[in-house]
Amino acid sequence: MKKIILIGISLLTLTACNDAKKKEEAKTAEENTAKETPMKKEEAIPQGIDFIASGENPSWSLLIDFDKSMTFTSLDNPKKISTPVPEARIPQDVSAVNYSAETEAGLLQVTIFKESCETENGESFSYKVTVSTKTDEMQDYNDFKGCGKYIGDYRLNDIWALETMNGKPVDKSMKRPNLEFNLRSGKVFGFSGCNRINGTLVVEKDSLAIGELMSTKMACPNAELETNFLDAVNNKKFSFTYKNLILTLTSGENNLTFRKVD
């Protein structure tokens, strides 16, 4: 009888130990998941997405594929709305880019501000984002605020010296204008032929927008190149392509080619 009791106690002890071990393993797995790096989380982003944003209270997310669509989802209304990506608009008085689209599904307006943003859990982003939505079933607009970032083309992230401007080669015996793109900070720096310049930068999948450029005020004998260069790049949006280590920026009638600085 004592032997049976002892065996029963041993089995109960073993079961309790196993349960405690399972709980500890589950807790460890949960902690490891919570400590996942942003890079691991990004693996779930659908292919082709160029910009992501999200916010809380209520929880919402935004995915933009600049070749296809803007898709907004939330726990509030609307639950989901997707529209084509309209032409970007750059406001005059703020460092931002705006997309406003209205379809049968409703209205989706997205404004991306070049301003640092921190989420409730302490994660830092380079852009603040506001979203306004409205469908036929809604009487008023719903506004959402959060943070976002571009999944940009990091080949841009370098210094590029001007090779040609509108088909005319630049004299290589002099110090040529150059642009340095910093995607992480959303800034462009450079040299315009005489003065140092800097401004805001917004990068999309195959286009970039340079904001109003600030410049030093040095006087130089050869001011024509600098004037033409600044006219071509200041507060402009470009499409860009790469070929044989040459970066080509195109905006309206302006076509500029740059070579990466070693």
UniProtKB/TrEMBL annotation:
Spans annotated as Disordered: 22-41
The UniProt record lists the keyword Lyase: no
Source domain of life: Bacteria
Protein name per its UniProtKB record: Heat shock protein
Organism of provenance: Galbibacter orientalis DSM 19592
One Pfam family from the record: META
Segments forming domain DUF306: 158-258
Swiss-Prot/TrEMBL keywords: Stress response
